Amino acid sequence: MTLEQFRETFLEEPGYLNYASIGPVSATVRAELRAEYDALSRMRFGAGDRTQTHDDRLADAVSAMTGHPAANIIAQPNTSTALLRVMFALDGHVVMSRNEFPSLPVAAVRAQTALDRLSITWIDGDDVRVAPEIITRALNDEVTAVAVSLVDARTGHRADLGAIREVIGGRILIVDAIQGAGVVDAAYEAADVVATGGQKWLRAGWGTGFLSFSDRALERLDPVISGYTGTPEYEPWGHVPQPASGEALAFTTSGPDYVAEARLAAAIEEVNDVGIDQIEDAVLDRVGEVIEMLDSVDLPVVSPRSGAEQSGIVVVRPDEGRLAALGAALHNTGLTTTSRQGAVRFSIHAGTGDPTLRMLKQALLVYRSSYDT
Fold this sequence. Notes:
Layout: H1 3-7, H2 27-42, H3 47-51, H4 54-66, E1 73-75, H5 79-89, E2 92-97, H6 103-115, E3 118-123, H7 132-138, E4 145-149, H8 161-168, E5 172-176, E6 193-197, E7 209-213, H9 215-220, H10 258-274, H11 276-296, E8 313-316, H12 323-333, E9 338-340, E10 343-347, H13 354-372
Parallel strand pairs: 2-3, 2-4, 4-5, 5-6
Antiparallel strand pairs: 1-7, 6-7, 8-10, 9-10
């Protein structure tokens, strides 16, 4: 698939700049969903067996993305569920920012409260970036794990996973990849656990996600949340075996949603086929255009403007008293964005087209005119 063919899979109407909240389902995923439900509704002989092959299909697609073995990958319904499984499996001391998206800190505190075997060192301060030098200051001999977001949802700051791996050594590195999976060319091989959902940049819809483990993670994590499918036996009637030791299988609780797996597999296969580097370049080119527009009306950009920390998220923080005017201009022009804590977030994908950028330019002119008067 070429980049232009990939862009043709974007079905949303012009004006959409909110992929960091929800990615409208792609044409490829929609076709996959229709085909799967058609097969399930007719249930011809062998259809059930074919549907279950999506388990291996998803594992292969994720393996190509993360570099972890296919046997170390399981489907998840969303990022938050995946992170809960991981945090309850930790034993020791984890370092993370208090300013991470709530999925991470809430999962860590729930595990700490329930099991009393996990302690947390919080990274605080005005600088919410989880940079290697900031992590280094929080490390000591008791720290066994570090948890970060691939891309910060509020600032668009992108974590350098390779550099973080260098400073933490052999500790477990847990990555919440929901903001960036599918558009950021990340060093996933540096991570021990990659957790994500597919409903944002991957455009696979709700109910999709995965956990991808390194061999080291599976050796050290204790699968506390483990169901009957997480044992070495198929349907262990009459007794309860221990979880499958050292296997990703141990972190499952039931059979997966095979249709969700098909949707997510199709989305990731497409990304792998196009090439994440090409998609990232296309995203950052569009991001550059958006930043130029924002600069032209003197809107303060508080997200990374360029370089390795940049992602598909652009955030502005209007001067005091100007947020409402900006929000009104965007809304009245038909642009979908996110406003949070005094800032406006634009999230741009490879398929963000010229009509959307023209709408944004018009909205910003309206905003500027209200400011001038």
